[in-house]
Write the C-alpha coordinates for this entry.
Amino acid sequence: MPIRAVTLDLDDTLWPVLPALELADRAVDDYLREHWPDVARAWPIPAMRELRAQVAESRPDLAHDFTTQRRLTQQHVFASCGIADAPLDTLWEIYFAARNAVEPWPDSIPALQRLAARWPLASLTNGNADLARTGVQMHFAHHVCSRDVGAAKPDPRIFHAAVAQFGMAAHEVLHVGDDPHLDVIGARRAGLHAAWINRHDEAWPAELGEAPELAFRDLSELADWLEAQGAAR
Protein backbone atom coordinates (compact mmCIF):
# COMPACT_ATOMS: atom_id res chain seq x y z
CA MET A 1 0.00 0.00 0.00
CA PRO A 2 2.24 2.86 -1.15
CA ILE A 3 0.94 6.09 0.38
CA ARG A 4 2.17 9.36 -1.14
CA ALA A 5 -0.18 11.84 0.55
CA VAL A 6 -2.67 12.02 3.42
CA THR A 7 -6.00 13.78 3.85
CA LEU A 8 -7.34 14.31 7.35
CA ASP A 9 -10.76 15.10 8.72
CA LEU A 10 -10.67 17.85 11.35
CA ASP A 11 -13.63 17.82 13.78
CA ASP A 12 -13.59 14.82 16.13
CA THR A 13 -10.40 13.58 14.46
CA LEU A 14 -7.95 16.27 15.61
CA TRP A 15 -10.11 17.67 18.41
CA PRO A 16 -13.51 17.12 20.03
CA VAL A 17 -15.85 19.52 18.29
CA LEU A 18 -18.86 19.53 20.64
CA PRO A 19 -17.26 21.76 23.32
CA ALA A 20 -16.42 24.37 20.69
CA LEU A 21 -19.91 24.26 19.17
CA GLU A 22 -21.48 24.71 22.59
CA LEU A 23 -19.12 27.58 23.34
CA ALA A 24 -20.06 29.21 20.04
CA ASP A 25 -23.79 28.95 20.73
CA ARG A 26 -23.29 30.50 24.17
CA ALA A 27 -21.18 33.31 22.72
CA VAL A 28 -23.93 34.22 20.24
CA ASP A 29 -26.55 33.99 22.97
CA ASP A 30 -24.50 36.26 25.25
CA TYR A 31 -24.25 38.85 22.47
CA LEU A 32 -27.99 38.70 21.82
CA ARG A 33 -28.80 39.03 25.51
CA GLU A 34 -26.67 42.18 25.73
CA HIS A 35 -27.57 43.87 22.44
CA TRP A 36 -30.85 42.28 21.30
CA PRO A 37 -32.62 41.12 24.49
CA ASP A 38 -36.01 40.67 22.80
CA VAL A 39 -34.46 38.33 20.24
CA ALA A 40 -32.62 36.43 22.98
CA ARG A 41 -35.81 35.93 24.97
CA ALA A 42 -37.73 34.74 21.93
CA TRP A 43 -34.94 32.48 20.71
CA PRO A 44 -32.98 30.75 23.49
CA ILE A 45 -30.26 28.32 22.49
CA PRO A 46 -32.49 25.19 22.27
CA ALA A 47 -34.99 26.99 20.02
CA MET A 48 -32.21 28.34 17.84
CA ARG A 49 -30.74 24.85 17.44
CA GLU A 50 -34.12 23.39 16.55
CA LEU A 51 -34.68 26.07 13.92
CA ARG A 52 -31.27 25.46 12.41
CA ALA A 53 -32.09 21.75 12.12
CA GLN A 54 -35.33 22.68 10.36
CA VAL A 55 -33.43 24.92 7.95
CA ALA A 56 -31.00 22.10 7.19
CA GLU A 57 -33.86 19.68 6.57
CA SER A 58 -35.75 22.10 4.33
CA ARG A 59 -32.68 23.04 2.30
CA PRO A 60 -30.97 19.83 1.17
CA ASP A 61 -29.25 21.93 -1.49
CA LEU A 62 -27.25 23.47 1.37
CA ALA A 63 -26.18 20.18 2.95
CA HIS A 64 -22.58 21.06 2.08
CA ASP A 65 -22.78 24.63 3.45
CA PHE A 66 -23.17 24.95 7.21
CA THR A 67 -22.26 28.64 7.04
CA THR A 68 -25.22 29.58 4.89
CA GLN A 69 -27.51 27.34 6.94
CA ARG A 70 -26.54 29.26 10.06
CA ARG A 71 -26.91 32.68 8.43
CA LEU A 72 -30.37 31.78 7.15
CA THR A 73 -31.30 30.65 10.65
CA GLN A 74 -30.20 33.94 12.18
CA GLN A 75 -31.93 35.93 9.47
CA HIS A 76 -35.19 34.12 10.21
CA VAL A 77 -34.79 34.68 13.95
CA PHE A 78 -34.51 38.44 13.55
CA ALA A 79 -37.27 38.61 10.95
CA SER A 80 -39.61 36.77 13.31
CA CYS A 81 -38.97 39.56 15.80
CA GLY A 82 -39.79 42.24 13.23
CA ILE A 83 -36.16 43.14 12.52
CA ALA A 84 -35.31 43.12 8.83
CA ASP A 85 -31.66 44.13 9.07
CA ALA A 86 -30.06 41.38 11.15
CA PRO A 87 -26.40 41.88 12.17
CA LEU A 88 -25.38 38.72 10.32
CA ASP A 89 -21.70 39.60 9.88
CA THR A 90 -21.27 40.40 13.57
CA LEU A 91 -23.11 37.26 14.63
CA TRP A 92 -21.01 35.15 12.28
CA GLU A 93 -17.72 36.55 13.55
CA ILE A 94 -18.74 35.90 17.15
CA TYR A 95 -19.79 32.36 16.33
CA PHE A 96 -16.81 31.62 14.09
CA ALA A 97 -14.23 32.81 16.63
CA ALA A 98 -15.67 30.65 19.39
CA ARG A 99 -16.31 27.68 17.09
CA ASN A 100 -12.61 27.60 16.26
CA ALA A 101 -11.47 27.77 19.88
CA VAL A 102 -10.81 24.05 19.81
CA GLU A 103 -8.63 21.98 22.11
CA PRO A 104 -6.68 19.37 20.13
CA TRP A 105 -6.23 15.98 21.70
CA PRO A 106 -2.74 15.58 23.17
CA ASP A 107 -1.61 13.27 20.37
CA SER A 108 -2.81 15.47 17.51
CA ILE A 109 -0.14 18.15 17.16
CA PRO A 110 2.88 15.85 17.66
CA ALA A 111 1.40 13.42 15.13
CA LEU A 112 0.74 16.20 12.62
CA GLN A 113 4.34 17.34 12.96
CA ARG A 114 5.56 13.82 12.23
CA LEU A 115 3.24 13.33 9.29
CA ALA A 116 3.84 16.71 7.69
CA ALA A 117 7.59 16.13 7.78
CA ARG A 118 7.23 13.16 5.43
CA TRP A 119 3.92 13.41 3.56
CA PRO A 120 1.94 16.29 2.03
CA LEU A 121 -1.23 16.75 4.05
CA ALA A 122 -4.63 18.18 3.17
CA SER A 123 -7.48 18.83 5.55
CA LEU A 124 -10.79 17.50 4.26
CA THR A 125 -13.86 18.65 6.12
CA ASN A 126 -17.59 19.19 5.91
CA GLY A 127 -17.44 21.69 8.75
CA ASN A 128 -16.47 25.29 9.40
CA ALA A 129 -13.13 24.71 11.10
CA ASP A 130 -10.52 27.24 10.03
CA LEU A 131 -6.91 26.04 9.89
CA ALA A 132 -5.40 29.39 10.84
CA ARG A 133 -7.73 30.07 13.75
CA THR A 134 -7.33 26.56 15.13
CA GLY A 135 -3.55 26.89 14.96
CA VAL A 136 -2.80 23.92 12.70
CA GLN A 137 -2.37 25.67 9.36
CA MET A 138 1.40 25.19 9.18
CA HIS A 139 0.99 21.41 9.00
CA PHE A 140 -1.21 21.36 5.89
CA ALA A 141 -0.34 21.94 2.26
CA HIS A 142 -4.02 22.19 1.26
CA HIS A 143 -7.45 22.78 2.77
CA VAL A 144 -10.54 21.28 1.13
CA CYS A 145 -13.99 21.97 2.56
CA SER A 146 -17.45 21.03 1.40
CA ARG A 147 -18.64 24.62 1.07
CA ASP A 148 -15.93 25.41 -1.50
CA VAL A 149 -16.34 22.15 -3.41
CA GLY A 150 -20.13 22.17 -3.44
CA ALA A 151 -20.30 18.59 -2.17
CA ALA A 152 -19.94 17.06 1.28
CA LYS A 153 -18.49 13.77 2.45
CA PRO A 154 -19.27 10.98 1.64
CA ASP A 155 -19.75 12.38 -1.90
CA PRO A 156 -16.77 11.25 -4.01
CA ARG A 157 -16.37 14.75 -5.44
CA ILE A 158 -14.90 16.22 -2.29
CA PHE A 159 -12.35 13.40 -2.05
CA HIS A 160 -11.46 13.80 -5.72
CA ALA A 161 -11.03 17.56 -5.18
CA ALA A 162 -8.47 16.80 -2.48
CA VAL A 163 -6.66 14.24 -4.62
CA ALA A 164 -6.47 16.82 -7.43
CA GLN A 165 -4.66 19.20 -5.10
CA PHE A 166 -1.87 16.65 -4.78
CA GLY A 167 -1.77 15.82 -8.49
CA MET A 168 -1.82 12.13 -7.65
CA ALA A 169 -4.03 9.11 -8.26
CA ALA A 170 -6.69 8.35 -5.66
CA HIS A 171 -5.09 5.02 -4.71
CA GLU A 172 -1.93 6.89 -3.68
CA VAL A 173 -3.79 8.90 -1.02
CA LEU A 174 -4.86 7.83 2.47
CA HIS A 175 -7.86 9.53 4.05
CA VAL A 176 -8.04 9.60 7.85
CA GLY A 177 -11.15 10.33 9.87
CA ASP A 178 -13.40 9.38 12.76
CA ASP A 179 -16.73 8.88 10.98
CA PRO A 180 -17.30 5.36 9.62
CA HIS A 181 -19.74 6.47 6.91
CA LEU A 182 -18.54 9.95 5.95
CA ASP A 183 -14.81 9.25 6.18
CA VAL A 184 -14.15 5.55 5.74
CA ILE A 185 -16.92 4.50 3.36
CA GLY A 186 -16.74 7.81 1.51
CA ALA A 187 -13.00 7.52 0.93
CA ARG A 188 -13.24 3.89 -0.15
CA ARG A 189 -15.93 4.65 -2.70
CA ALA A 190 -13.83 7.49 -4.08
CA GLY A 191 -10.88 5.14 -4.60
CA LEU A 192 -8.72 6.29 -1.68
CA HIS A 193 -7.34 4.19 1.12
CA ALA A 194 -9.07 4.84 4.44
CA ALA A 195 -8.00 4.80 8.08
CA TRP A 196 -10.53 4.95 10.90
CA ILE A 197 -9.56 6.91 14.02
CA ASN A 198 -11.55 5.13 16.71
CA ARG A 199 -10.75 7.04 19.88
CA HIS A 200 -13.64 5.62 21.90
CA ASP A 201 -13.20 1.93 21.08
CA GLU A 202 -16.51 1.71 19.24
CA ALA A 203 -17.68 -1.32 17.30
CA TRP A 204 -17.67 -0.98 13.53
CA PRO A 205 -21.28 -0.53 12.33
CA ALA A 206 -22.32 -3.88 10.87
CA GLU A 207 -24.63 -2.23 8.33
CA LEU A 208 -21.63 -0.61 6.67
CA GLY A 209 -20.13 -3.93 5.67
CA GLU A 210 -16.51 -4.93 6.02
CA ALA A 211 -14.53 -3.18 8.72
CA PRO A 212 -11.65 -0.99 7.58
CA GLU A 213 -8.27 -2.56 7.11
CA LEU A 214 -6.71 0.32 9.02
CA ALA A 215 -8.08 1.40 12.42
CA PHE A 216 -6.15 3.30 15.09
CA ARG A 217 -6.90 4.56 18.57
CA ASP A 218 -5.32 7.94 17.87
CA LEU A 219 -3.11 9.83 15.46
CA SER A 220 0.07 8.66 17.16
CA GLU A 221 -0.72 5.10 16.15
CA LEU A 222 -1.45 6.30 12.62
CA ALA A 223 1.91 8.07 12.45
CA ASP A 224 3.67 4.97 13.76
CA TRP A 225 2.06 2.84 11.06
CA LEU A 226 2.78 5.26 8.24
CA GLU A 227 6.39 5.72 9.26
CA ALA A 228 6.79 1.96 9.28
CA GLN A 229 5.62 1.93 5.65
CA GLY A 230 8.37 4.31 4.58
CA ALA A 231 8.57 8.02 3.88
CA ALA A 232 7.08 9.65 0.80
CA ARG A 233 9.85 12.24 0.71
About this structure: The chain has eleven helices and six strands. The longest strand covers residues 121-125. The beta strands are 5-8, 121-125, 142-145, 173-177, 193-197, 214-216. Residues 20 and 99 are 5 Å apart (CA to CA).
